[in-house]
Structures are given as structure tokens and as C-alpha cells.
Amino acid sequence: MRKQLKAILIIIPLLIAVAITLTIVLPYFKPPPTTSSLGVVRIYVNNTIAGSISNEIDQYEQDVISQGYTVEIINWSNTDVTVLRNNLINASNQPAGLEGAVLIGDLPAAFLQYYDIPWSKNRTYPCDLFLTDLDGQWVDNDPTDGLFDAHNNGTGDLYPEIWIGRICPESLNNIDHLTAYQDYFARNHAYRTGQLTRPHSQLVYIDDDWSAWTSEWLGDMTAYSNITSISLPTTTTTAADYKNRLTQVYEFIHVFVHSWPFEHLFGPGGSGEGKVNYTDILNIDTKALFYNLFACSAANFSYTNNLANQYLFSNNTLAVVGSSKEGGMTMSSYFYTPLNQSKTFGEAMRLWYWNPLHGPSDPDSIGMTLLGDPLLTIY
Predict the structure, then answer these.
(1) Distance (Å, whole) CA 221 – CA 73
(2) At residue 229, does pLDDT exceed 60?
């Protein structure tokens, strides 16, 4: 018994000594912590404005890092969109990959042409899918015109691997561009930090020629339960009524209306019930933070004073989705459901394109564009 007691008295101090040693030594042998990064994001800034908005870019970079991303800032000067695409491809091939890109300032865009049968003429439009589908092939049958004519699988498929968003007020000649950048990034930061808020609500405004499918459109609005629907026959849709509703407080507005780059045209066939032009958007005290414009060519950012950029740089707006050509977002539940799952606008756009029923091969889809910060989410 005495031998057992002696052994215990010897073992206990030894165990205590081992425990103390392990407490001191083990921390040095811990495996490195796993990264919490959501992926790599590249922020391209036109080098002619980089110095003027350096404080805004610094704040935005910190906001995106706080969101969980690894950020690479690139001052860009090359005007060849193919060079920009190759830069994105190279970034996506790095071990860390690439989630997407934010294009700040006047950065290059690809232009596609198509034959407009009703008007019997060729038309062109900017196509940002060129910068997001990195393994597809883009065909230019006439290199002298600088316009792409076809899009096929190439070495991969037609679908986007990454997302992009553009933040550029320079197509607008009715505002000061430097102030527009500064104000946009100020409200962007305010939204991210909870200082700019709206009730979680959506206005769905459906003009005459789409009103017969109101129930189908509303079924696609899966990001919101608090929805105000304005459409025939229960409510008359007019330019005057729409302008009034722009001053009301919603988080998101989705409008269906005949349009061209500078104007919304209300009424059957786009006539008889008034117009809302870019000057109206500039002068109205709009309240919504986000817009989806089912409005032909309203997001053709190559046009001076295009509607989508006028929305984006007026008052409170943070992001605008729309088409740069005829068409708009169909089957939009594939966009709103990811938003409802707290995915970013950019990722929601990318996932929307992956629906094969209306994907990049659909002429009404290929012009879809995201203007504003693609890294925002709805709360």
C-alpha cells in the first residue's frame, strides 16, 4: 500500500509538469487557421480618375475586405476590351481564382451587332457577358468594324464564370462626374454600415402590354414578401403615376415599360400615357435603392444620358439591372431567389444567366447589364 501511495505521489507531479509543458508548447504547433475569404475580387479603376477618388476607393476596398473578400486594386488604362478580358482570364486561372470584378470609371466594353428585323437594320449594343463568360468564343467576322457577331461554346460554354458591375457616371452630361463618384461611394458605405436603410419592400410596376401576365411576373419576385403591384386592370399605369411612385419609399423597384435609352414610354405600344425621360429621373427625389428595368435599351450605357446611369447616380440608388438592347430579365426568380439567400447582386446575375431556358443563347438575355456595386446584398 505504501509502495502504491509513493508511486501516486511521484506520478501526480509528473502529470502536472507534462500538462504545463503542453500548455506552453502546443500553441506553437497549431495548424494555420483556415481562411475565411469569400474569394478574390478585382477592382479596376480608370487611371485618369484614380487619384481624384483615392479616398473613396480606399474606403470601398476596406468595405469589401470587411465583407470577407480578398481585394486586388488595378489602375487601368488600356482601351482594348480584349486585353481587359484576357486580364480577367489570367486572374481566374490563378490558384485563388476570381469571383468577379468591379469596373470604376470609363473602362472598355465589347459591342455586338445584330439585325433588327422589324426595323430592317443592323444595331449594336454593349455586351458585358463578353467579360464574364471567360471560356466561350466570341466571333468577329469583320475585324475592321470592331464588332462581335457571334458567341459560341469555344473551349467551354456560353455561361458566365464570373460577374462584373460598372460604376461610371461619365455618360451623363447633366451632373458633375467627380461629385457623382464621391456621392455614390458615400451612400454605398452608408448602406453597408446600416446608415442608409429602407423597409424590405418592392414596387412592381407593370405597364399595359405586360399586364396580362401580372400573376406570372409577381410569382418571380421571390426576394420580397411586401410587394406593391401596380398594373391593369386594377390600377391605371401612366407616366405621371410612375413618377409619383418614385418618390415613395421602397427598397426595390421593378418596372415593365416600353423604352429606349433615354425615355420610358407608357401606354399600349408605348404611346398615349406619357413619357419619363432622363431629366425627369434627375429631378425627381427618387427613394428606392435598387431597380430592375424591364425596359428595352434603358441600360445601354454607351448612350449619353442613358436612363440606367441616370437612375444610378440620382439620389439614393445603389444598383440598376437592365438590358443594353431590346429585351429584359425574364424568369427573374432565378435572380431574386439568390438575392433572397443573401447572395450578392453580381452572383445573382451570374446564377440567373445559368438558367438554360433563357440563358446567353436567348437574344433577349444577352444584353443584360449590372450598373452599380455588384457586391451589395439586400438585407
Answers:
(1) 35
(2) yes
